[in-house]
Structure formats: C-alpha cells, structure tokens
Amino acid sequence: MPSLGSKLPIYGQESATGRPGADGRARWRSLDELANRALPSPEFPEGAAEPPEGVSRRTFLQLLGASAALASLDACRPPRHKILPYVRPPEKALLPGTAVHYATALAWGGHATGLLVTCVDGRPVKVEGNPDHPSSLGGVGSFELATLLDLYDPRRAKGFKKGQAPVSYRSLLRDLAALAATHEADGGARLRFLTGDLGAPVLVELRRRILARFPRARFTAFESAGADQAYEGARLAFGRPLEVRRKLLEARVILALDDDFLHHGPEALRLAREFAAHREPGAEMNRLYVAEAHHSVTGTSADHRFRMKPSEVLGFARAVAARLASAHGLSELAALGGGETRLGKQAQAVADDLARARGRCLVTAGPRQPAAVHALAHALNAALGNAGKTVEYAPALHDVAAGPGALRELAAELAAGQVDTLVVTAQNPVYAAPADVDLAALLGKAKDSVYLAYRDDETAPRASWVLARSHPFETWGDARAHDGTVSIVQPLIQPLFESLSELELLASFVDLGDAGAYQVLRETWQKRAPGADFEARWERWLAKGVLEGTATPAERAAPDAAAVAAAVEAVPPAAAGIEASFIPDYKLLDGRFAENAWLQELPDPLLKITWDNAAQVSPATAEKLGLENGTRVELRLSGRTVEAAAWVVPGHADDVVTLPLGYGRRRAGPVGTDVGFDAGRLRAAGAPWFAGGLAVAKLGRKKHDFAVTQEHFSMEGREIALAFDRKEWKPEHVAGLRGPVETIQEPVDYQHQQYKWGMAIDLTKCIGCGACSTACQAENNIPVVGKEQVMRSREMHWLRVDRYFEGPPQDPQVVAQPMLCQHCEAAPCEYVCPVNATVHSDEGLNEMVYNRCVGTRYCSNNCPYKVRRFNYLDYRGDLSPTEKMAMNPDVTVRTRGVMEKCTYCVQRIERARIDARVEGRLIRETDFTSACAQACPSRAIVFGNLNDPKSQVSRLHQDERRYDVLHELGTRPRTAYLVRIRNPNPELT
After folding, report:
1. H helices within 110-190, ranges in order?
2. Does the pLDDT of residue 70 top 90, yes or no?
3. Given a cut of 80, is residue 38 above it in pLDDT?
4. Fewer CB near the terminus (10 Å): N or C of the chain?
5. CA dist 866 → 44, 716, 821, 897 (Å)
6. Residues 307, 810: Cα–Cα separation, whole Å
7. Is 790 helix (H, G, I), strand (E, B) or coil?
8. What is the pLDDT at residue 152?
9. Cα torsion angle, 769, 774, 780, 785, sign
10. How far is it, in rounded angstroms, from Cα 377 to Cα 257?
C-alpha cells in the first residue's frame, strides 16, 4: 500500500507525520519511524486482516450471508443454567452471582502489598488494592493482578512425592516429623533451610522455635532480586541494617541514583501515588532527576534523565556531594566528593537544586547499586536535613543477608558433605542462583532435599522430596508492609489441588504439622496481642486487612561520615570496555512469573516487546558493534557465554548491554519454556547486578523475530500525546483541541440525562507501568493470543499504553499515553456497521452487541483511534476447567468472529445501578469506578459521571490542560486527556 502522502483521504485532514504538533515538538514511536523507514508500511501490519488459515477477505465476505443467519445462534453461546429453589433464602453475601470482597495480602521479597479480592460463588475473580493498606493505598500492580491466573493454572504442582512415590498428606506430616527427629541428637548440625526473605511474623516465630529445638541448624535467605546491598549500605552508614522509608509527599526535588522506585520495590505503589500528587503544574510541583543506564519506568517520568553506565553512578553522586560541600557549606560531605564524572555540569545543577530545597528533597539509591552508593545517599540526606522529613529509618524487618552472595556459604557446606537435610522454600533457586553457584549439582549432595514447589521447575528434579506449594489465596498466614504494618493473609478459596504452605512445612519441624496453618497463626497472634477482646480484634483485622498500631516506629540515625568515606574509596574501579547490566524483568521479575501468559503478553513499558527479552543497547553502541534489532549475538563474561538477540533502545547508555532476568527457562511449562534467553547464566554472586569486561560478538545468523507492539495501530504521526515544559505551557496551546466541531451529523445532547459516563487521563501523572492494561484484561476476560498472533498485530488488549519519543535518539524524552475506546458521541464505527452491532446507549456509551456482530470489521477499519479488537480464533476452546474459573461472570466470553473493545466496564455500571435502585438512591461517585482507574497506582485515570458537576471527572474535563485526541475529526470523545507537563531545571534547558 503506498504512503498516504500529505492528505488523509478518509477524513480530509493533513497528516502530521514528520512535523511538530500543537506543542511544537515532533514525536516518533521507533527508530524506523524517525528515519522515515516506517512510512511506506500499511496502516496495519501485514497479516492483520487475514485469519491464520489464509482465507482471503473475498472468501470471508462470501460467507457473510451464512454468518448473519448463524450469528444469533452461535456468536456468543450463553451458558446453560439450572434453576434451584431455596427453602430458606441465604444472606445477601451468599447469593449466587453476588460479589464479595475479602482483604488479604501478597508478599514479594518479604514485604506485603495489601489487596482486596473480589470473589463470586466462592472463587476469586479480580484483585484490587486495599485502600487501607500503607503500601498499596488502593493501587495495584501487574504482578498482583496477574497472580490470579497463577491460582487457576492447571499445570501447577499437585500432591507430594518422596522420591518417585506419591505420599498422602497425613503420611507426609508423619514423615516430616520423623525426618526432623533424626536431627535432635546433634542439635540440627546437619540441618539447613534455604528460604526467601522471612518477613512474616508467624514465619519469624517458627524460625525462632526451630532454632530453639535445633540450635546448630541454620537458615539461609535467598532473593535473587533482593535488597541486600541496601541493608549493607545502611550498616556501613549507621552501624546497623535499617529499613529506609521514603516520603515523597514532602519532597520537592528528588535524585534517584539508578532507582526505579515507581515500579520496583515494596513501596512502589505508594511512592507512585505520592509522586503523582505533586505533578500538577502549580507552585509546589516536584522535580525528578534520574541517573541510570536503561530506560526505567521512573526514568521515563523524570524531568531530567542522565544516562550513564551503572558503574558511573557512584562518581556522579560523589560530584553532587563535592558541589554541596564546596558551594553550599556542607563541609561534612567534603571527604565524600571527588571521583570522576562526564556529567560535571549536570551534577552541579542537581546539587544546587538540592541545596535550595533543604529538608524538602530526597536522594535515593536503587537496590542494584553497591552498598557504598547507598551509604553515600544516606550521608547526602543527612547533610541536606532530610532525615525525619523526606526519609525515615526503622529496624530491619527480616533477615538482611538475602541475595546472591548469601548462597556461597551454604554452597560450600553442601560441597563439603556437611548437610544431611536441606529444606528449600526459596523461589526456584537452581534457576535463579548465580552462575558460579551450581545448586543443580550441589542439591544432590544432601541426603534429603525437601523442595516446596509451585511448579515442576528446574529445582524440582534435583530434590528428593517435592511438595506442591499452596497459592497465597489458598492458605492462612501473615505479612508485613514496608513500614512494618501487619496484614492477615486469609484463604479465598479451598485448595484446588493437594498442597502445603510454607507455614505448614516449617511448623512440621516443631511438631505443629497437625495443628494446621489457621491454628498456628491464631495462637501466634494470641501471644503477640493478648486480651479478652481478641476475637473481636481478629474479626476486625480480617475485615480491614491491616492490624492497627503494628507499624515499626522510626528511629533516629546519624551516618558515620568516616565510615561512608572509607566505603566509597574502597569501591574498585570498573573494568574497561562494555558493561553487562542485569535488571529484574518488568513482567517476569526474576522468572517466577514465566508461566503467566497475561504477563508474557503484556508489552514491556518502554520497548513494547512481548514474549521475549532482548540484549538492549544504545544507538551508538549498536552502530559501533554493527547491530540491528534482532541481530543474534554471543555475550561472553568471565568465561561464561550466552546467546541473545539485540534491540536498539533510544536513550540507552553507551557501552552498556542491559540484560533482563527471568527468561530462558528450560522447565517452566508450555507458556514459559524456551522463551527468551537466560541472562542469569552470566551473573556472578560477587557482581550480581553489573560487571565490566563484556564481550559482544555477532553470530551472523538469521535475525530473531520479536513480537513488538510499538508500531501496531499507528496514528500516522498525528497530534496524539502532547507535552510541554512548565514555563512554556499556556492554555492557548490546546484551546483549539476541545469543544464542539461542526459535522454533518447532528450530535445527540446527553446533558439532560442523569448519567453521562466519561473518563479523564492525566498524562503528567501517568508513569506508563501498564497496570491498567492488566487490570482491564483480568476484569473483561480478554484472551491471550500468543507470540505468533501478536506478530500479526492480533493482540486483544482493549487498553494499550502507547509510548512516544521526542528529541534526538541519543537522549530522547518519553511520553506514555493509555489509549482505549474513546466512546465517541459521534462514533465513526457506528455508521459503517451493517448489522447495528455497535450502537449508543441512552447514556451515550458506545456499546457492542456481540450477538449481532458478524465480523465484517468495518468498524475497526473506520475507528481513527485503532482500539477495536477482532477474535480471529476461538480462544476459549482450549481453556481448562480451572482456567474457566478465572473468568469474570459479569462479562461475556467472546467467540471467534466477534469484534470487541473497551466498554467503560459497563458491568460495573449496571451492578452499581442495581445496588442504588435497591437502596432507592442515585449512583454515587464512590460506588464504583472502571477497572483501569481503580488499579492505576498514580491515579492518572479518573472515571465518573460528567453530568455531576461535583465529580472529579467533570472537574478534569473543565481543566485548562484538557484536550481531545483527534479533535479535528469531530468524534466528540468521552475520554479526555490532560497535557503532560514537565518541570525541568532552567539551568539544564
């Protein structure tokens, strides 16, 4: 198909490709588009319009008549129902089809995120954030949302095996008690436990009781993506390991040293909310500086992003300290300055800005940086008067010796034959361990190795006992938030398969196996919080999801400047050449989510790659090495090699190769096996996050095919995502991009309706994390299509997060924009549907009537926002019975040949309407919101009634930053966007 040229024939509008938008900046979505190599491509990628069997469009249209006749019978097959009478009606909460919400928590790396889980007919169907929990504040991330799919995975581990023989639950408890008894004679001298971070109070208590019974036993904590360097940095600075609590509500200037705090870590959801709270262009708008190598979620939200090697972050921080000491009188930092940095001017400007905001600024270091950088960050915060204001310190909540380095002593004991029994509850350590710790060979050295496994993974065949692990939604427990607040973890469904929890396994080593998880948990808390009213408090804890008053109090801590200076000076210089930089993957973390199809198909926040990882390089490094997207390379580091495929990333640091962990699984399951490459095979325990001396060699083979959504559904370069610097922003910039446009159709007036549903999306607050997309998928039963179909542009996400670059490819700025059905009041899709399958409701919603749809796809062709999705296959046919349990019963499961799109969560609207009618009132703003808005951690998405002038969405639609996407087409969208505003430092612009 030839280029559209300067005119768009359908709409008669000029194309904005290659020219600036209303904000005076030209934006591009990929390096190909920037180089004009993408212009001759068709609007939809090749194959997007053809079914996989190769049936032509002409053949498809020939079948139209038959499809119309059969549509009412087979387009959306309704489930069969049986009517069963009640002799005595149950309570409302137990009525079939009634949603009930339960509070619980999930823990990653020993810290909890509070959740509210929606259950229908005794099965969890949706995960939300708990607004009463200090770590989530009502927001939720993709990991928490997608764990629901893991619950119903039919390929989970089932039952218990001792050797190759299956064992019953009761027999297992007897065998474990007998195994524990064999170690009493020597006090557990040859008994070892390999666990994750044990932050849960009940697990900490069980560990204490185990060590009391077996005083010579030892626990080793291992988290492949843990924060051991952060704890060590606190020990260097303060003499003891401490928890660091950041308070962004008080911070106006923030310096992040390789810290992706908006996406990774136990505080990410809360920090995203607090950061976004001061991203409005007022007098108190905060400013964010980020120093990093790869484009992180936090880096894309920065006002200034400084790209550098991971090893150069320390030198940059030292330059900031030197400037603060020499120009601003902070003499306590004089010994910490020095070092070398290429960004001296930038470091001076950052230091000056921090000095102007003393007591209202923050310096934060990421877990990938060495302990010396964390210690230096503590010294900077102390000198700037931030301690107790924007940062607090509290005692460490759990074992601080957790990380790749913690394995080496245990590995040495295994190699020496000093371990008879090894109990493993850590996440798949054979795969996740550093390459120089060969746990695959060492596990066999133990006489008995007991592995609590969620799947039949790489560790399972190496263990002599394999015990199926319970899902967190199936068992009792507790967990601590980042500030120490405790949540009770309660089961939301009976175990789907025979399994055991970590609590039950550890309890069996102190003769509590028969007691059960519930009894052990209750007794633990009866001892910790005794009182006559315990039962009432217990019920309140379960209902609210948090235990009031359990937060760990902050304590005063002053850094030892001499110790910090010694630590900084002791950091060895980086090896010359290219650095390898390892990062937890944005979708799979450390590999524990490799079998989760929702996350595999979720586009990477920046690269937009699905079903893969890539060796990420900058344009300059790619040119130097002769690499292009998909070029196969061999990576060699310290004698270890791995094959990978390259991807060129604008804004990436030069002479760095970023390697996401969590891929290249050899024993994950049908979803995650042989997806991507295993970067962990290059990782060493002594340098778990970055190392110099990486050799990169082209292999000269056929390029790897990536499934990338970045250029799917192109908007042809038109004014879509708008961004301005704070000082240049004027309301006049978007005055012509909102309000009525004269069209040949007379618009319907919905102002006199009780409800006029609409949405507002603030691009300034959006961090581009993708949680909204996962929430939409979970809420609306959106199928997964697989890598092959994604490459054909057939992904089914109703809500996508587009990413736009602006500026030079060496150092561009980024704008993220959630894009979904705009629910246009003059919707182009409705005019072309031959069977009236897409229509308007009385309240102005653009609705899909699935039973009418015959699959002509005319509506998709005529949608200027490219947000309609067509079911090329019957994705429900291969679902197992347990996977079907994950489906939201309020949303129709679509079949092959049906078009679908965002419905503004109409099922939630109708449920709220029913509840309001029963109570004899109107729908309130607080009754419900859309799934994407409820999940958004930064509250960038707001949904509600536009006819209520007091509603937040109505106020945002009147905001001076509001504009309509493709306003010139006159579609009158119900979804409004607010211009992204940046707050750059005038000294650096």
Report:
1. 142-151, 169-181
2. no
3. no
4. N
5. 9, 11, 8, 18
6. 10
7. helix
8. 94
9. positive
10. 9
Burial 342-359 (b: 16+ CB within 10 A, else e): ebeebbbbbbbbbbebbe
Cα–Cα distance measured from residue 576 to residue 655, given in angstroms and rounded to the nearest whole number: 10
- Does 382 or 754 have the greater pLDDT score? 382
**Side-chain half-sphere CA neighbours of 778 within 13 A:** 35
Looking at the predicted structure, is the pLDDT value of residue 723 above 80? Answer: yes
Mean pLDDT of 75-82: 45
Q: Is 371:401 a contact under the CB 8 Å cutoff? A: no
The per-residue DSSP string of 666-700 comes to SSS-TTTBT-S--GGGG-BTTBSSEEEEEEEEE--
What is the rounded CA–CA span in Å between residue 830 and residue 834?
9
Provide the 8-state DSSP code for 702: P
Structure tokens at 926: 């607080």
Q: Which of 135, 374, 345, 133 is nearest to 244 (CA)?
A: 374
Task: Give strand pairing partners of 800.
Answer: 819
Alpha-carbon gap, residue 66 to 171, rounded angstroms:
60
> Long-range pairs for 169-177 at CB < 8 Å and ≥24 separation?
169/498, 169/500, 172/467, 172/500, 173/508, 173/513, 173/514, 176/450, 176/505, 176/508, 176/509, 176/513, 177/508, 177/511, 177/513
C-alpha 387/C-alpha 379 separation (Å) is 10
To the nearest whole percent, how much of the chain has pLDDT over 70?
89
The encoded tokens of residue 685 equal: 């325990």
CA dist 113 to 29, 102, 103, Å?
A: 34, 14, 11
Over residues 66-81, the mean pLDDT reads: 45
385-to-239, 395, 899 alpha-carbon distances in Å: 20, 21, 58
CA angle 505, 509, 513 (to 5 degrees): 55
Q: How far apart are alpha carbons 308 and 315 in whole angstroms?
A: 10
Nearest Cα to 904, choosing from 969, 989, 958, 823?
823
The helix/strand/coil state of 355 is helix
| pLDDT score at 749 | 75
User: Is 9 or 843 the better-scoring residue by pLDDT?
Assistant: 843
In the Cβ-directed half-sphere of 671, how many Cα atoms lie within 13 Å? 22
Q: Which conformational region is residue 56 in: left (phi greater than 0), alpha (psi within -120 to 50 degrees), or beta? A: beta
Average pLDDT of the segment spanning 203-208: 93
Q: Which H/E stretch holds residue 316?
A: helix 313-327
**Domains annotated on the chain, with CATH:** 7-62+756-982 (3.30.70.20), 228-395 (3.40.228.10), 574-708 (2.40.40.20)
- 194 half-sphere exposure, CB direction, 13 A CA radius: 36
Structural contact between residues 827 and 860, judged by C-beta atoms closer than 8 angstroms:
no
- Find the mean pLDDT for residues 837-851: 91
CA dihedral 554, 555, 561, 564 (to 10 degrees): -50
- pLDDT tens, residue by residue, 96-105: 778 889 999 9
The confidence score (pLDDT) of residue 664 equals 94
The DSSP code for 27 is E
Indicate if the pLDDT at residue 19 is higher than 50: no
What are the structure tokens assigned to 109, written together? 């790396």
Q: Is 538 exposed, middle or buried (0-12, 13-18, 19+ CB in 10 A)?
A: middle
3-state SS track over 607-651: CCEECCCCEEECHHHHHHHCCCCCCEEEEEECCEEEEEEEEECCC
By the 8 A CB rule, do 380 and 324 touch? yes
**What pTM was estimated for this model as a whole?**
0.89
Q: Compute the distance between CA of residue 313 and CA of residue 301 in angstroms, rounded to an integer.
A: 19
Q: Looking at the predicted structure, is the pLDDT value of residue 471 above 80?
A: yes
| Cα atoms in the 13 Å half-sphere on the side-chain side of 365 | 30
